[in-house]
Amino acid sequence: MRRDPFLFVSIVVAITVLGFITLPLIIVCLTSFNATTQAVFPPNGWSMRWYANIVSVGVFARPFQVSLALAASCVVVTLTIAVAATLGLTRYSFPGRSAIDAAIMSPLIVPQVITGLAVLLVYASIRGMPLAYLLALHVILTLPYAMRVLLASMARVGGELEEAAISLGASRIKAFFLITLPQIKAGVFAASFFCFVISFDNFTATAFLVNREQTLPVAIYGYILSTSDPTVAAIATLMLGATTALVLLIDRTIGLQRVT
Amino acid sequence: MRRDPFLFVSIVVAITVLGFITLPLIIVCLTSFNATTQAVFPPNGWSMRWYANIVSVGVFARPFQVSLALAASCVVVTLTIAVAATLGLTRYSFPGRSAIDAAIMSPLIVPQVITGLAVLLVYASIRGMPLAYLLALHVILTLPYAMRVLLASMARVGGELEEAAISLGASRIKAFFLITLPQIKAGVFAASFFCFVISFDNFTATAFLVNREQTLPVAIYGYILSTSDPTVAAIATLMLGATTALVLLIDRTIGLQRVT
Amino acid sequence: MTENKPQSVEIDQISVRFGDVFPIRKLSLDIGAGELVSILGPSGCGKTTTLRAVAGFNHPFEGDIRIDGKSVIKIPANARDIGMMYQSYALFPHKTVAENVGFGLKMRGLPKGEIVARVREILGKFQLRQFEERLPGQLSGGQQQRVALARALVFNPRVLLLDEPLAALDKKLRSEMQFELKRIQREYQITTMFVSHDQEEALSLSDRVAVMANGKILQIDTPSEVYDRPTHRFVADFVGNANFLTGRVKEGEGRRCFELENPAVRIQLPEGDFPLGPAEMMIRPERLRLGAVGQDNGFTWRGKLRDRVFLGNGLRIMVELELGRTVQLDLSPEQDRGLADKSEVEIGCLYDDVRIFPLETASR
Amino acid sequence: MTENKPQSVEIDQISVRFGDVFPIRKLSLDIGAGELVSILGPSGCGKTTTLRAVAGFNHPFEGDIRIDGKSVIKIPANARDIGMMYQSYALFPHKTVAENVGFGLKMRGLPKGEIVARVREILGKFQLRQFEERLPGQLSGGQQQRVALARALVFNPRVLLLDEPLAALDKKLRSEMQFELKRIQREYQITTMFVSHDQEEALSLSDRVAVMANGKILQIDTPSEVYDRPTHRFVADFVGNANFLTGRVKEGEGRRCFELENPAVRIQLPEGDFPLGPAEMMIRPERLRLGAVGQDNGFTWRGKLRDRVFLGNGLRIMVELELGRTVQLDLSPEQDRGLADKSEVEIGCLYDDVRIFPLETASR
Q: Does the beta carbon of D61 lie under 8 angstroms from any beta carbon of chain A?
């Protein structure tokens, strides 16, 4: 197995892939410290001015708050629905179950342009409450990811522990909250994380619904259309840093292996 | 277990979710058959004119071709890389393996706005070949999905079959192509499908790179900004129909269970 | 420990239905107070369904289940007061040993002090005191099994149900735990029912064994009766090893006899009701012996020694009989010494050790 | 079939390293041409690593492996010409039985016609002709095992390696396949090595058994020698059941003797080299017998019958000796009849059936 040409080829491919994927991110980071006004690569000099510019330019504060609030609400709503639906789907079989299975997974393959358009149409017919519609859209988009993670955790737990609790005298609801829920804790954390990131980052579908209140990705896109300075690279670097920190935190506390 | 309040609650939740997710799609379908010029819901009358309009409006033909070519190339490039990298990652352990693991999965959590911006920066510094850069972007975006599916299939196969083939006299390369590859066929199909759909539908990251050549989702978005007739609902319905047909085809031929 | 008197279990003509499948049909089984009864059968025979019906996890659409004479069929699983131990033990991985064992008492709303006291008492009895604060994942297989058993017993259940109690242990530990489990069951005097697909486990643990196939109980009797006097061919084949020889039961001089075909060999049958016609003769490999047997109480065959397999505590040999069949013999170490390097052997069998099964009832 | 003459395998002082772990260290094992040798040990003892080193799937950093006297250590796995059968069988699920069996011949570039002919021949021999066109998933466990064996044998390999050959089969089928596997190995006269953690499998199949623990071979000998005269306490404990009694070896009158403590009981030892000092005495449960034994060639103990477990082909009893220890006896059906309902018993043991292990070597 040593001196194996396959080993060489596949390591080369893997490392190339690594570079290919991470290079753009490194470029964004470097650009954000660029001294000149044009977002170009390689940078002409080094400066922190674009990080200061994020605040001083003034157009990102409100969208950031909107995105944060939206993502947080989305996590709460999606997870509540997902836990209840997962329980129903794993513990009981009833007619039409597989149709529901398929429907829940469908947003994974339905183009977001379509989903966004669809919610826009509903929104257009019943005006007002833009954030509520945005939330509904994000719940639709994040639900399948949450369900996938939760279904996988629940499958690992199985019904036997819950049944054992019942045989020991627990009611079904007590058995769920005392025994099953603690088992899928890691899955719930992971699902929350994915929901938050997906909601916070979403642009495609969100772009359809935004008029008065912008989310951060929409604001970034709008800014790029008008200005080409490295301010957005600075924002992107911050977002990247925050995401990485969150992933490391999860890895330390519950372990990435148990999550993905 | 009969007469269980839990059963009732969870079935209700599951059905509500079903409605919540599919309702917007149904609305899009119905709107596409609307007789009036405004895309409103509920429709005022029925007509097929917006389907005819897709062609006659003339702005969608070229973007459709671009998206199709892009998605097809993306499948070929991504799958080739993904199969080689998966093989390297599952059959060998070498220093830095887990870093490569993490890097390959990172586009799943890095916001697409950032990835798009990053590729735009590279693109800005080396102008020309817009489609090549678009392809590179799409490969970056689809690779993690392809890798996830392939890693899962490969994990199921294990190295024992390959080893058995070697003990029977096959070289390592023959063992891979004759034994392992046929085992992960379903995974390769599924990965191809996901790559195609993700590439064809992508808007967020693509939007950054598009200037001369538009892709279909970008064209749709541009159309909505200027016109609000149901033509895009008609396109969306066609896309939805095509996606559904593809999913059904996969389900019939290799089975969705083996894929997701 | 509040002493409960052991309670009987009566399963009365229950049938269970899952969609179009009827895993058990009109099944009856009575278990005396304090008795240890096993249900033995291959996977899919309905034994676990029966156990789960008693536990309240599935619902017979007909029939009744009575504990201590009172029907429990309408009582939900969490109120039946039945201790259950799973093959996987189903210990709660996020709770300590003490919390696991105390769970049943907590669900019954006992005061905290009493829970602690009773958990300590039973953990002491099961030699688990030092593991009190450990999580189940930190215990060995045998320790986990004892925790699961303690958890099922601590609240003084009316009945104890065990699902393949020893299957998850390795061979060595299994034979130790057999004695242990029997000792505990006797000490607690608790009516116990367990399912198993392992005949060794069932024979060695049970007061009575119920052999089950296709949703029906074929025979229920003491281990030695089931082994030595199986009532069905399936029971003979499933419990222990067996030589089967086909032939037919015929009228003989006075008593009926069994005739092997080609060449015709007649074997006198003991008194009893043997239906005439095609039948199979069954002899246990360890009931065949080397050397001739007196004609009054048995018969002798001659054959060639074809193969020998060392079993450690004995020898298994294959003998090709002159009459054209091959039979298997299990020899104890003493007999083994008499074998030396012979290739031609005489083997004998007592009439008492022969069972006859009419071919019609040959179920499987 | 081109007849190959059987070839010897010599494993000469090999050591394998995985990172910081050395699963085997300076291990040597000679297997004669045409011999069937098993490596028996608990999981993690290094037995599979040894097998895989012979197959060429791991690379000893020192030592040599020779087949037919020639070193194969530098030959890659696919050129060693070794037949291997996996515990999971590792049949190619997308290829038919015929394609699976023919794979090794195809890799050797044989003409299509010859492949078909040789596959047909071996499938016929293994009673698999009618399954030729089936996929492995459509076969039973026993049939899959035969296909895997045929696939490993069809290209006339120099050596056959089997990884837990019977472990995936159920109990019934396993004892049938033991005879089958032995018959095939003898017919092909192929040098065979197999690993097992199941002592029954190893004892019944092998010409010689190598008992392994912690990367070392403790004893290699015929099954009956390993069982009856284990050289290490670990071997005695791992192979078969055993009663262990602690005490010490002392000087006696003429010969040495073993003394149990509290109360002191002396047992004459046979001639032999027993080191003085703390030791354990080992007696197999089936070597103890009911009733007294003459003082010249054995000793007799008295005790109380504490428990009895019905094993089907015998009875296992626990006897609490007057001298304070509890021993286990396995009785054959004949002895069993002599037991009746006694509670006080005499048990006897021949000096020949006693093994002594100095406590220093008590490894595990």
A: no
